[in-house]
Fold this protein.
Amino acid sequence: MNFTLARRAARLNPSVIREILKLTERPGVVSLAGGLPAPEAFPVEALREAAARVLAESPREALQYAASEGYGPLREWVAARLAAQGLPAAPGELLITSGSQQGLDLVARLLLDPGSGVAVESPTYLGALQAFAPCEPEFVPLEGDDDGPLPQALAAARGARLAYLLPNFQNPGGRCLSAARRDALAEACARVGLPVVEDDPYGELWYEAPPPAPLAARLPGSVVYLGSLSKVLAPGLRLGYVWAPPALRPKLLQAKQAADLHTPGLNQRIAFEALKDGLLERHLPAVRERYRARRDAMQAALQREMPPGSRWQRPAGGMFFWVELPAGLDAAALLPRALDAGVAYVPGAAFFPAAPRANTLRLSFVTVPPERIAAAVAILGGLFREALSA
Amino acid sequence: MNFTLARRAARLNPSVIREILKLTERPGVVSLAGGLPAPEAFPVEALREAAARVLAESPREALQYAASEGYGPLREWVAARLAAQGLPAAPGELLITSGSQQGLDLVARLLLDPGSGVAVESPTYLGALQAFAPCEPEFVPLEGDDDGPLPQALAAARGARLAYLLPNFQNPGGRCLSAARRDALAEACARVGLPVVEDDPYGELWYEAPPPAPLAARLPGSVVYLGSLSKVLAPGLRLGYVWAPPALRPKLLQAKQAADLHTPGLNQRIAFEALKDGLLERHLPAVRERYRARRDAMQAALQREMPPGSRWQRPAGGMFFWVELPAGLDAAALLPRALDAGVAYVPGAAFFPAAPRANTLRLSFVTVPPERIAAAVAILGGLFREALSA
């Protein structure tokens, strides 16, 4: 007997990034492709001690089934951290998720019917497009400028179910919305009647100054806010969190129960044990310094190596440069040659909800050290210039 | 602005069991409600050593983003274990999930459209009904007898997308399908053209003899098989696995990526480190002995205490007794009195896809020791007899 696939299965797609990540496992390839935090920046010692403590002091609780809402002390820690950023989240209002990817998935299942409009930046986070797609929404790309989506563009999204926005150091674009742009976008959302899903995995990775307060602080009750410990602690723990308005919380919790009962208690307890005594205050400055140096190395290398007519902004945080090559170059078509030359990147096309621009690519600056960044960008520059003159 | 809920959100429901679990946290309540493995049976020492080893020897790999398919060595371990049970699963054919609840969720998203038929035992696993419900299927309850669903009942499910079956020590019914019944059901599924989702979280928890080979071994290519480490190792790790036919694997992997990128690498590595040297061979006999004694204590207590006209089968494995009280008793209505008297159970109604039988309840025998089982069942017996004579 054959299985019949559900209609939504046609909307599932292989992740371009995960496919490229496989190629980068070839020995000798320097990967600027993945959004992988630098593993040498993981607070290994703190996590090792935390794991030992959890498994010595409360092994049975850590290894047993646990509450779907998440581990109470971790929710309290997250709430305090959000409060410091201007978000008055109470611990009981937070749901711990299995990474913030799960937050996106749960939100989609809760809010999107086939044909529902979803306003998105263009380009936007590929994983969100993938999480939303099986619910069969219609993506409404928002026009933007170098400073982010344009407030007046939201009028085109009237009637959509939500706007999905990444104000802080967007993936893939790298840009951070100014306070003024945030205010204007919040006002426009209110005018158009458009609730917001605000995704903030990178907010703590700022290299000059902390970003302005989140949209959730500007539109109370109308924003689902998603956060993550993947970039500040370690992604392999798979820990994220959702702060949703009261009307959504019961159904959100039920969707979580149906999806995987609960996020592993062991991981939540290890994270809390590691974080509770101010680990991030000690750890994040070093991470920021490391990543800032790598960003600066990539900025310098791009300036040296990219062909004339290329465009990019130096990101003030996060993990990515978004590069527009001179018209006529096709980043996807050039990738095999780059891989042969030992460098991987992500062609930009997959980040567009519609009308992909072939001459774009995303470069991660956090995974490899400055000298390898310089060498890898030099290889790319040579390849792109060669392609231009061909 | 208000969020608009998707149509499927109306099909999400609070988990009756999770609601009852909250009540059982009252001090002094003996809980026969949850399907919680006995925490004193967790192999804490082995997991503690495994965690220390993983975080000493490969911390960066364990804490980094990882493959959506799962950790290779763990997949090899699972494949070898399944092979020993007659399932020729290759490691590359397995997907590691965040508990087998996630396996159910992914399967539903892949296979169920609104209105799709799903043949289910009646009663059946509540968590599966919850995972399937948001996809808006039509449940087709299968008629059964004391030995499980009747092969001839499958004719009524012709045209359904799948049959969801738990052959081994079913939750909540406790019964294990005989080899002959498995053969007859496999033949009936083939005749009716009905693929199967086989859920096997309890197969290793046998107390007299291992169960017959799974349906997946009898219907090659037509069964999605779901397994779990929750009952043999520890549920707090949230580790399960799916073995699906080749045609489903790419989409299943994409659904997993969209749902949560991957199951935590840390947990997978800890489990593998703990399991690789034959932990289960040393550990499971003790778990079985412990649970067998508790099952026998509950069987004896039920024989002593239940009012005449009550019916149940002694389960040959798993975690649950399924009790039918004399007609007229309503287990849900009696629960508050039981809680006041210090005992929790799960009323049976929630396990029925349709036409719930109010006089049924599920009792877990694995969480509490024999003497407390005896006392708790005595309290329930008194309460039920009193209700009968009221």
In short: Chain B has two domains: 7-42+281-389, 44-279. The longest strand of chain B covers residues 223-228. The first helix of chain B runs from residue 16 to 23.
